[in-house]
Design a protein that fits this description.
Rossmann fold; 2 domains; six-stranded mixed β-sheet; elongated; binds adenosine-5'-diphosphate; alpha/beta; 604 residues
């Protein structure tokens, strides 16, 4: 990957850190916050609750009617009564199904709207986060939050909310009816509850931790794959296939291990429930039989209890089954909220300065900046570029050239000192306002999926077709565009594969031409481009630079020579400054540098 001035992430920090350790948040605050999202759809939720209440009541009514059928009609051989009761039972179950259908239908609506909002919020928020946030995280991990984590939340909302509500209602209803029918048998049925509670607690505390672990390893693996895929040519170039396979295996194995234990523990839950269910059934049958012998309860009541005990453990069973999704969703929600809680680029006040008729004078006053605290990248840098000047930044890799540009565009803000545009401190100019007056032509021209025309128009969205073509013409891009199969309508895929690096640059220049900014930021290509295209680029750049203040990271002697001012950077400090001639006369660092560049210049 070639370097560009605006680097989204610093390679070292990306490897060193996989984001901050997930804050161990409480379950309750996370649930509360999720509930806050749901509360925005009160109407639909009310309907869902209504249907859940109805279905729980009807679900309890069914077994009760069966018990009555046994005691009142089967025992007394009352055929007519039995038929009537069976019809009533059928009606109850039809309504029961209808309420189940409706509660699901409305709940899906609630869930989809909720996660739609969360996705929007998260995506918007991501765009407002400072670049330093992205420096510390793998892109794959972030992508997984926007898609996987939110999808988890969605599937959980779809099923779990209803399950929880209906479980609570069914449990309360069942206990009430059971107490009414036989307090003694109720006590026997409830015996199983402490066992359930202890068993569940033991398993779920482990499962929660294990699921979080699994989710973390999955994020890491995703990030690793994304990085490996996007840097595959580098891997091949340096024959690092084996090394990367080893590193992959290591992460893959960790995920396998975490997945194994998480699934094993959660798999125990339904089995345990089943066993307890059977024990409960045996207890009811035994105790109920005894009570019936002494005439304390009827056979119908035993049947109702046996059925209710199933109803009784089923909600808990359901909850347990839900636990897989519930846990990973809560873990996911915590990670989503983590991002939402990360501070945005500090909010800009509406009253902030607007720039009119920008002339493009740029001034750095004692600017210092560190990406990581305590390790200053830029130290007390001061310079002035008068309107229309061309300033070339020259210096070895890592000397801070790109950082100066990052600061000028306010991708980062200086720790001390001030940057002024037209004598106005950029700290008080909204970022978008500031960037409106800047054009970027970077080494790695960014092109998105869309037509050539759309890509150029990105510079100024309201430009007419004629203006787009005029810009392409002055950027020397028109002739190559016309040779493409669909001309300006040619679709670019995958960041413009299919056109050459040089042609991409020409498009970037056309885009900047169209935007017509007062300040131009250039990062000259270091890679060699064929001589003809190179000539086109040089010519297009010269006409682009006319009348604009240009800050250029320059690598070619020809370009550097033309600069009104050359700033030689070394370890974040300006060590020499002046024009080519004065610096050559000085016989300092620049003179040596220029000499090394000379053969390159001669080649061109
Ligand atoms: P140049 O453009 O002259 O090659 P840079 O401005 O890119 O230099 O880098 C200056 C220093 O800052 C280097 O040591 C580089 O490793 C470091 N650096 C650059 N970007 C980041 C970042 N996003 N996070 C941390 N350190 C960075």
């Amino acid at each position: 990957m070639s370097r560009s001035a605006v680097k989204p992430a610093h390679p070292h920090s990306r490897h060193a850190q996989l984001g901050p350790k997930p804050k161990v948040k409480e379950l309750l605050p996370t649930l509360k916050r999720l509930a806050g999202y749901l509360a925005r759809r009160k109407g639909l939720l009310f309907l869902v609750v209504l249907m859940v209440a109805a279905s729980s009541a009807l679900g309890l009514l069914g077994p009760y009617l069966v018990g009555r059928a046994i005691d009142d009609f089967i025992m007394t051989k009352d055929r007519q009564g039995l038929v009537l009761l069976l019809v009533l039972l059928a009606v109850v179950y039809v309504f029961y199904s209808a309420t189940i259908f409706l509660q699901n239908y409305w709940m899906v609506g609630v869930a989809q709207k909720t996660v739609y909002e969360m996705r929007t919020e998260l995506f918007t928020h991501l765009h407002q986060l400072p670049l330093s946030f992205f420096d510390k995280r793998q892109h794959g991990e972030l992508m997984s939050r926007v898609t996987n984590d939110i999808e988890n939340i969605s599937s959980t909302l779809n099923s779990s909310v209803i399950q929880v509500a209906s479980s609570v209602l069914t449990l309360t209803g069942a206990i009430a009816v059971m107490l009414y029918l036989s307090p003694v048998l109720t006590a026997v049925t409830l015996l199983i509850v402490p066992l359930l509670y202890i068993g569940m607690n033991w398993i779920t505390s482990r499962t929660r931790r294990l699921f979080k672990e699994q989710q973390r390893h999955l994020g890491e693996l995703n990030g690793f794959i994304e990085e490996a895929v996007s840097s595959k040519h580098i891997v091949k170039m340096f024959s690092r296939e084996e090394k990367i396979a080893l590193a992959f295996n290591e992460r893959n194995a960790k995920l396998k291990e975490a997945g194994f234990w998480a699934q094993t523990y959660s798999g125990f839950i339904p089995k345990l429930m089943n066993m307890l269910n059977n024990i409960s059934f045996a207890l009811i049958a035994g105790a109920g039989g005894l009570l019936a012998l002494y005439g304390h309860v009827t056979v119908g009541v035993i049947v109702v209890f046996a059925e209710y005990s199933r109803q009784f453990t089923r909600p808990l069973n359901d909850l347990a089954n839900q636990f897989n999704t519930l846990l990973s969703a809560i873990a996911g929600a915590e990670r989503v909220f983590d991002i939402l809680d990360t501070e945005q680029e500090e909010k800009e006040k509406a009253a902030d300065v607007q720039l009119d008729n920008v002339r493009g004078k740029i001034e750095f006053r004692d600017v210092s900046f560190a990406y990581e605290k305590g390790n200053e990248t830029i130290k007390k840098v001061s310079f002035t570029a008068e309107s229309g000047d061309m300033v070339a930044l020259v210096g070895p890799t890592g000397s801070g050239k790109s950082t100066i540009i990052n600061l000028l565009a306010r991708f980062y803000d200086p720790d001390s000192g001030a940057i002024l545009v037209d004598s106005c401190n950029t700290a008080s100019i909204p970022r978008s306002e500031l960037r409106k007056h800047m054009g970027f032509v970077l080494q790695d021209a960014f092109l998105f999926e869309g037509t050539i025309k759309e890509n150029i128009r990105y510079g100024r969205l309201e430009a007419t077709d004629e203006e787009v073509i005029a810009a392409a013409k002055s950027a020397n891009a028109h002739s190559f565009i016309m040779k493409l199969p669909d001309g300006y309508e040619t679709k670019l895929q995958n960041e413009g594969t299919g056109i050459s690096q040089g042609q991409k640059q020409l498009l970037a220049i056309a885009r900047a031409m169209l935007a017509d900014p007062a300040i131009l930021i250039l990062d000259e290509a270091t890679s060699s481009i064929d001589t003809i295209t190179e000539m086109y680029i040089q010519e297009a750049l010269s006409s682009l630079m006319k009348g604009r203040t240009t800050i250029i990271i320059a690598h070619r002697l020809n370009t550097i020579r033309q600069a009104d001012q050359i700033l030689v950077l070394n370890q974040g400090q300006i060590t020499e400054r002046g024009t080519h001639d004065t610096l050559i006369q000085k016989q300092g660092q620049y003179a040596g540098y220029a000499q090394r560049l000379a053969p390159v210049a001669a080649e061109q």
